[in-house]
Amino acid sequence: MGFYTEEIRVGGRRKGFRWKRLDGKEGVLSHIEIKGNTRIGRYGVDVAGFERDIVPVLELGQADVELYIVDEIGKMECMSGKFAEAMKKLLADNKPVMATIALKGGGFVSEAKKMEGIELITMTERNREAVVEQIIKKLSQ
Question: Are 119 and 90 in contact (CB under 8 A)?
Fold first, then answer.
C-alpha cells in the first residue's frame, strides 16, 4: 500500500510532479499551470487532490497491509496537514513503512527524522547497491 512521485516532463523540461498509487491510480501533485497560493517555487500544488486520493491509503485500520511505501515525505507533500497527520499516526503505530524523505526541510520533514523507531539510511549513487541489499535484508526479517 502506498504511493510514489515522479516528474512530469514535456519536451525534456520538467513541468511538475505526478503521484502514482501502488494500486495504479495516478494524479498530478504539482504543475507549473496550477494557479493559486499553494506553491513550491514555480509549481502550484494540488493539496485537495492529494488529500482526497493519497491520504486515505495511509490511514490505519487496513489490517492486511504488510508494508507501506511512501515516496516521499517532502515539502510538496507536507503542504497537506492531513498527510503529515496520517504519516505521524502511521509511523507511531509501528506498521512497517519504507519511505523516502527530503534531505532538507522543516516542519514534518525534520520531525519525522526524529521520531522514535525511525531508522534513517542515506542513499547515494556510490552506496545505492549496498543500501538496496540492506533494505531487502531488513524487509525479509
Answer: no
Q: Is 39 helix (H, G, I), strand (E, B) or coil?
A: strand
Percent of the residues in the chain that have a pLDDT greater than 70, as a whole number: 97
Amino acid found at 125: E
According to DSSP, the β-strands at 68-73 and 97-101 are: parallel
Q: What is the pLDDT of residue 60?
A: 67
Give residue 102's Cα distance to chain centre: 9
Rounded (10°) CA dihedral 89, 90, 93, 99: -140
Specify burial of residue 114 (Cβ count, 10 A radius: 0-12, 13-18, 19+).
exposed
Domains of the chain, earliest start first: 2-139 (3.40.50.300)
End-to-end, the C-alpha distance of the chain in Å comes to 19
* Closest alpha carbon to 30 in 12, 54, 50, 60: 50
Nearest to 122, CA basis, from 4, 137, 113, 108:
113
